[in-house]
Amino acid sequence: MNWLVIVNKKAGGSSAGKLWSSTELSLKKTGISFTAKFTEAPAQTRLLASNAVNLGFGGIIVFGGDGTVSDAAAAVSPMDKKPLLAFLPAGSGNDWIRSVGFNPATIDSCIKAIASQNTRLVDAGICKWPGGSRFFLNSAGVGFDALVLERALISRRFLPLGRLNYLLTLAVSALFPPHWRATFFCDGIPFYKGDYLTLTTGVGKYSGGGMQLSPLSISDDGLLDSVILSPVSFFTIAKNITKIFDGTLHKAKWATSAQGSVIRIEPARGSSLVLELDGEIVIHITNSDYIELISRPNDLRVIIPPVV
After folding, report:
1. Residue 308 domain-assigned?
2. Domain check: are 145 and 48 in the same one?
3. Which of 93, 117, 141 finishes a domain?
4. Is the peptide bond before 89 cis (omega within 30 degrees of 0)?
5. How far is CA 25 from the centre of its chain?
C-alpha cells in the first residue's frame, strides 16, 4: 500500500518537528511506501486528506497530535471510498490513539502496527446545533471541561508547558468552579436536569492528556458514553482527582452517566453553553438553543495494535 503521511511539525508545541527526521527514517527502514506532505493549518490538513484517494493513496498516516488526526478524519468521514487511517503520535495528548488500543502510545509501536496492517472499524460522532454541525473523532465537552480548555489555550501562548499547562489551568479554575443549568437527554429520554459542573461525551475513553472523563467509552460499540458531574467544591475535586485518571469517575455519587446513540443538551433559559470537540473550542451557545451529539458507528477503518 502507498501511504500519504500528513506531517504537522507544529504539534506538541512544535516538538514534533524535532521527531520527524528520525520517524521518516524508521518508516523507510520498515519498508513502508509513503509520500510526506506538510501541513501548517487545519484547513490544509483536511484538503490533503480529502485528496488522498484521488492521488492514488490507499491510506493516510497522520504525524501530529489529536487535533491533526481529527482534522484528517473529518475529511475522510464523508467519503464513499475511505482510505485507511493511521497515526504517529507527536502531540502533547495523543488521546485518540490510546482509545484504539495503543497504550502506551509510541511512534515505534505505531510504525510496527502500520507495517502489519491490522485494522478495525471504529466509531466517530457528529455534533449538531441550530445552523451548524461538526465532526468529532474522540470526545466532546460542555461546561467546565470546555472552560478549562479555553483558558488553557489562552495561557499556553504565555506558558508553553504542554500537558502541565492544562493541569495548572484545571487546578486554578477549580478554586472557584462555575456551574451551568441544562436538561440532558439520551436517545430522547431525560437523564439529568438542573445545575451541572461539566459533561464529557466520548467515542473514546481518553481525553485531556490521559484523563478518563468518559471511562465506559468503547471506540467500536456504536454508542456515545456521557458523564455529567454535579456542582462540587474545590476540595471535592482535589480529593477525587485520581478518579479522573483511573477510570472510576462514573462511580462518584455526584456523577451521572448515560450511554446511547444521541445525546442532546438543552441549556436552561438564560444559561450559556461552551462546547469543545476534540480539544478545540467550537461554539458558545446562549438562550435556549441546543446541541446534539450523534454517534457514527463503524465510520472509519484504522490501524490498531497487532494481535499478540
Report:
1. no
2. no
3. 117
4. no
5. 28
Could you report the per-residue pLDDT of 177-188, keeping only the tens digit for each? 788 899 999 999
175 and 105, same domain (yes or no): no
Residue 305 lies in a domain: no
Grid cell for residue 25: 527514517
Grid coordinates standing for 257?
452517566
User: Shortest CA distance to 134 belongs to which of 273, 264, 277?
Assistant: 277
Quickly list H helices, the chain: 16-29, 42-50, 66-76, 95-99, 107-116, 144-155, 163-174, 234-239, 243-246
- When mean pLDDT is compared across 12-21, 106-115, 219-228, the lowest value belongs to 12-21
Residues 98 and 136 in one domain: no
Strand ranges for the chain from DSSP E: 2-7, 33-38, 59-64, 84-89, 119-129, 132-136, 139-143, 180-186, 189-196, 198-202, 224-229, 255-260, 262-267, 273-277, 280-285, 291-303
Predicted confidence band at 156 (pLDDT cuts at 50, 70, 90)? low
259-305 confidence digits (pLDDT tens)? 999 999 999 887 778 899 998 888 777 766 899 999 999 999 999 99
